[in-house]
Amino acid sequence: MQLSEHYNLYTRYIDCLNKVNLEMSYSDTNECNQNYSSTRSAQKSKTFCFDAIKLHELYFENLTGNNTTIYGSISEVIDDVFGSYSNFLEKFKCIALSMRGWVMLCFDKYNGEYYIYGQDSHDDGVMLYAEPLIVLDVYEHSYMIDYGTNRSLYVDVFFENLDFKVVNSRINYLLNLEPKEPPHI
């Protein structure tokens, strides 16, 4: 039930982006003002909707319920950077409980580092050169139907359904590594 409502919201972001793009194609270039203008409003809406679409796509893609045992490149990275998977989960969950929008494990292509960061909004706090590896939606719409106000349980269930094959494909693509198969359990 929760995911179907979530998907409906995602499709509304697509509709929003299409509408904004259409409006921008007819916008008056004489109306350009940083305080208020239709151009400014359209640009703000465009980045909000575009980022919402991309973040939701990454979120849905890594939330399959398949390949839920950590393995491969992501396991090695987490052990190297955070010391252990349990340390990583503790830090990730703390940030997830502290933010209003998104929490991600990212690879920074600029400096070659991995870090967890959060965003309060789709387009607020976006870090340049940050490639998302694990993406979790922590907006209330993502958990309220199934979990009420228990965001902590939602985060736990997210990790029980995180597809590490997807996460490894993201990291291997960035590092140009050959993919490893998930363990057969």
From TrEMBL:
Pfam short name (any one): Sod_Fe_C
Keywords assigned by UniProt, alphabetized: Metal-binding, Oxidoreductase
Name of the protein this chain belongs to: superoxide dismutase
Keyword Cell wall biogenesis/degradation: no
Keyword Oxidoreductase among UniProt keywords: yes
UniProt cross-references to SUPFAM superfamilies, sorted A to Z: Fe,Mn superoxide dismutase (SOD), C-terminal domain
UniProt source species: bioreactor metagenome
A GO MF term: superoxide dismutase activity
Residue span(s) of domain Manganese/iron superoxide dismutase C-terminal: 72-170
Enzyme Commission identifier(s): 1.15.1.1
Sequence similarity: Belongs to the iron/manganese superoxide dismutase family.
